Amino acid sequence: MTVRRDRPFHAPDGEQLLLDAYESPASTGPKPAVVFVRGGGFTAGDKGEFARQAIDVAEAGYLAVEPQYRLAPEYTFPAPLVDVKAAIQWCRADERVDPQRVAAVGPSAGANLAVLAAATADDPGLEPEQYPGASSALSAAVGYSGIYDFRMRDGDDTAYLGDSEAALDLASPVEQADASMPPTLLLHGDADTVASPQQTAVMADRPGPPPGGVSAWRRGCPGLPVDGAHHAAPYDRTADFLGQHLGTPGEDGGPPSGPDPTQPPSGGAFDGPDRSPR
Question: Whose CB has fewer CB within 10 Å in the chain, the N or C terminal residue?
């Protein structure tokens, strides 16, 4: 495994943000990329938390990237979202990546940012300035135990959103999503007491679902961590989903051409929660 650590990718307001990129030396040529966006309630954490899943994805032939993003309360919305979009655009600028096949995956706050990035692709008010002309569109997005509607939250989110009523909607994927979104997989444990499973249910059932969107559940799980006892089930579903919508890299490093992220993807609509056990 080749790991390029601490690669600079975005310097907003003079603060240099870094990312780690994981790649298998056995895989050559332009390949799909997966941006892993960690959680942390928008206030804590750092890159490296997704190392296990990034290695798994890289071994499958993808370029896996885990970026830093700015944290509240020092930085409020939309700063972290802009940083995630910069990481997406960094992937497109990397010669190792097929620019038409980039996905984002995240848990909790990271799910919010990954799915919101998918819902607000190329929005002029939310784009970084570092990659002029580069698209922030995604070919697919995956959210674990996500926060999709801030108006449903019981906690105090002012450290991240400030006192703006408008920010509650702008930062909520359920309010920004429309049929132009790429295929989106949502996973949530129905015993989760940190992020309500209702967040995923509302996102999955919203009007105007994205083509190819899917909502899936894992029963009896108190959330969906990306490591530990529940790693295998969400990873297997994620790997299947990425292979379906980004194409599985071939053994010779020449994966088939994927969908154009600037065009509406093909596929069925959200089919509602799948409550079968895994």
Answer: N
